[in-house]
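In this section we walk through a basic example: taking a raw amino acid sequence and producing a predicted 3D structure, encoded as C-alpha cells. The instruction is simple. Fold the sequence below.
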Amino acid sequence: MAESAAFRYLADINIGFGVILQRAAFMEEQSKLAERILDQIADAVIYANYSGTIIRWNHASTALFGYSAEEALGQSIELIIPEHLRAPHWSGFDAAMKSGALKLQGRPTLTRALHKSGRRLYVDMTFAIVKGDAESEVLGSVAMARDVTERVERERAARRSS
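The resulting C-alpha cell sequence is shown next.
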C-alpha cells in the first residue's frame, strides 16, 4: 500500500513537472514570436529603460536611423535626437518616468530625428510607458517611429509655391 502511494506521488510529481515544461515551452515560443513580430514590422521600435538607455532596437530602426542594433544597444536615446531637442526630450522623458503617464497619451507626434549620417529626418512617433508587474513600477518607454520626411518636405514645398 505504501509503495502504491509512493508511486502515485511520483506520478503526480512527474505530471506536474510535465505541465511546467509545457508552459515553459509555450512561453519560450511566445517570446520568439514576439521577437519575430517586432523585427518584421515596418515601423521602428525602440525601447529605452528608465535611464534612457536603448535596450531594444528592431530592424526597422536600423533602416530608419542607420545604426545597427550592435551600435545602438546600450547607447543613450540621444543617439537619434537632434541637439536642439535634447533638453525638451529629457524634460518630458523624466516627467513620464516619474509620473508613469505621457503628456501625449499615445497620440502620434511629428518631430525631428537624426540619422547616423547626420541627416535630419521628420518622423511620426508614438510613445508608451512600459510598466512592470506593479502598476506603479515604470521600467522605461517604447517609441514607434515612421519616416515622414518626404511627405513633410512635399507639403512645405507646396505651401511655398502657392
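Looking at the output, two observations stand out. Residues 111 and 123 are 6 Å apart (CA to CA). Strands lie at 44-49, 54-57, 109-114, 120-131, 138-147. In the next section we compare this with other chains.
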